[in-house]
């Protein structure tokens, strides 16, 4: 008797679980989005038509519904960093791309972001990076935000590094960063301080130009 | 990195701009896109049917025929297309693999034709996606079994150099191999039957002496039965000894179920021979004869069905056990209730709870012998509840068990499949994951990335011996930028363990020769930096990790120290009596090495002069800033 009751109860549990999953999947496929025309995008960004085509093909391949939600975004980004955990940094990246703050990235947002990063002026790139670091969008970068970012970057390295990652390495990295950036030593970095400090740093200027020919 | 997201690599690289302000080191040079042509359509003509796709799509899997330069062999100059003289239907699935990253197996295809196409195009079947993998494996297994059956049927000719022992064993296991074996098989079967029948008939009363009651035949014709028994036991003994002799692994044979049955079948006879008519133990001896009935189990060698039944029972043992347990619970409950209910009535048969067990069992299985009946009203009420629930308890699980049999049987098969699938799937994922990560580590070790820096040294570019695809080089460049940003390096798991051990020894302030070599490694090396590119001095670019481990443990470090290391690979000149000289200029070449450690910028003549000092206290303190900086490359 106990056996019978046991098997019946187990069976019902499985059924309900399956039903929930089906509902979720139906929901996701409902949302669909098509981007504006090719000409408009070409006008708004600094990409040529062919480049937009290539970008869109890749975009649509991974996200047939036309929008990327955070989960998919993290999944895609994590594929490039198999060693460690790229989800935190991907989260910040997602927020940086999601300019309208509605939890999903359409193709237009994606292409705008890329246009700034790859074809924008130095000032644009630096502003974009500043907004990436400014997690709470208050126009200032404080030590906590920077620590979060640096920790996220170190997370991507994973566990097996040489030399082995100690706990306070991110903190020291952040301290060095603030040394460099915070001119008036008030504990926060404003956009102007950031842009000024970066422009003074030749290494960084060179690094920024590194990714010019990515497309 | 799954090739499907290769299209997002530009995005990932663009996002790397976010690391730039944080990074303190200069970034390496990006690999240039040498062939800047736009993505083009290529035409694949497969037996007349034309498929078209982007060149980039095919480049996603560079280790297949279509993704590598091997397809150039099939290029047709006049028609400017690639022609393959293969099956176009199967090619559809193969091309879809490039497009979607998932390989599907169409059910209508013949398994061997599909395998051939996969082998031709250089695709391993293990990457068939989960939706089709089970079907593929099932068909494949059926096919191989069929092939093996065919093989066995054709295996008339015995291997010429099979020993006599092996022939015998084969004859025993498979009676169809030779006529001798078949004869033996039938003879033993016959004697088993005879033996069983004899045991049965022995107890039948046959005829009566004039002045006695019926006596069983066994006592009447004692000698005849004794002769029969002897003959059977002799045959069984001989058979057992022959099997024991022929068995490839005697120990395993002796532990097997069938041999235990054999032994148990013939043992009572021998025990009976040994023990003569000693009255004390003859009672026990008689019970031993019961074991003669085990001879019937010898039939299971002759019957496939019995073996399958035995196996199924074994595999359902947990189910049966649980049923038994629940039945026992019910029996105990009802027996207790009946006992206390019938306690009041006089001359009740329910003398104790164990005595009530019998009543409960008989009632629940609806046998109802009637030797024990409740007399009180309460007893009758509970008795009826007992019999009703007995119907439920017994009748319901029986179909469950029957279906359990078939379910478990199929489930076992499917569980094995799934386990193999899961293992294969995990292995696949591990391979692709480690493929991308170890690919990066390998390309680092090959010294390709080490000298690439912002100021650019183009001669190293031309030294790229390995032709990594552009995609791979870009991905590696991205990972390299991350390393530079965080000033740490990706290492292999095992090297990390070694490095961990090493940092445990970091607390030595000086490099005294008292650094022990208990773990086989000591502090850091202090060899002279030879060149910009450290070409690995040993020629073996082994990728096996165990090899690396050996190398590490054989790592020779302290130049002035006499290590009792059993290393044959290191060729450091051991100065026998130098005690911890820090300038190891006379140290020889390092053949084995660890990983390259980040060079402190103060010592790095290549670094830009205004790079801030590294906030890296983790740099091994053994590195004396005065000496030359170490740069060792791993093999």
UniProtKB/TrEMBL annotation, chain A:
Keywords: Calcium, Cell membrane, Ion channel, Ion transport, Membrane, Metal-binding, Potassium, Potassium channel, Potassium transport, Repeat, Transport, Voltage-gated channel. GO terms for biological process: regulation of potassium ion transmembrane transport. One of its GO terms (cellular component) is voltage-gated potassium channel complex. PROSITE patterns: EF_HAND_1, EF_HAND_2. It comes from the Eukaryota. The keyword Ion transport applies. One of its GO terms (molecular function) is potassium channel regulator activity. Gene3D superfamilies: EF-hand. It is found in: Cell membrane. SUPFAM superfamilies: EF-hand (SSF47473). Residues 85-120, 121-156, 169-204 form the EF-hand domain. InterPro entries: EF-hand-dom_pair, EF_Hand_1_Ca_BS, EF_hand_dom, Recoverin. Belongs to the recoverin family. This is EF-hand domain-containing protein. It comes from Cirrhinus molitorella.
From TrEMBL, chain B:
This is BTB domain-containing protein. Residues 610-623 have a biased composition (Pro residues). CDD domains: BTB_POZ_KCND3. Gene3D superfamilies: 1.10.287.70, Potassium Channel Kv1.1, Chain A (3.30.710.10), Voltage-gated potassium channels. Chain C (1.20.120.350). PANTHER family: POTASSIUM VOLTAGE-GATED CHANNEL SUBFAMILY D MEMBER 3, VOLTAGE-GATED POTASSIUM CHANNEL. One of its GO terms (biological process) is action potential. Residues 40-139 form the BTB domain. It catalyses: K(+)(in) = K(+)(out). One of its GO terms (molecular function) is A-type (transient outward) potassium channel activity. It is a multi-pass membrane protein. Its main location: membrane. It is found in: Cell membrane; Cell projection, Dendrite. SUPFAM superfamilies: POZ domain, Voltage-gated potassium channels. InterPro entries: BTB/POZ_dom (IPR000210), Ion_trans_dom (IPR005821), K_chnl_volt-dep_Kv (IPR003968), K_chnl_volt-dep_Kv4 (IPR003975), K_chnl_volt-dep_Kv4.3 (IPR004056), K_chnl_volt-dep_Kv4_C (IPR024587), Shal-type_N (IPR021645), SKP1/BTB/POZ_sf (IPR011333). One of its GO terms (cellular component) is dendritic spine. The keyword Transmembrane helix applies. Residues 1-16 form the signal peptide. The chain crosses the membrane at residues 180-201, 221-241, 253-275, 320-341, 381-402. Residues 595-627 are annotated as: Disordered. Keywords: Cell membrane, Cell projection, Ion channel, Ion transport, Membrane, Metal-binding, Phosphoprotein, Potassium, Potassium channel, Potassium transport, Signal, Transmembrane, Transmembrane helix, Transport, Voltage-gated channel, Zinc.
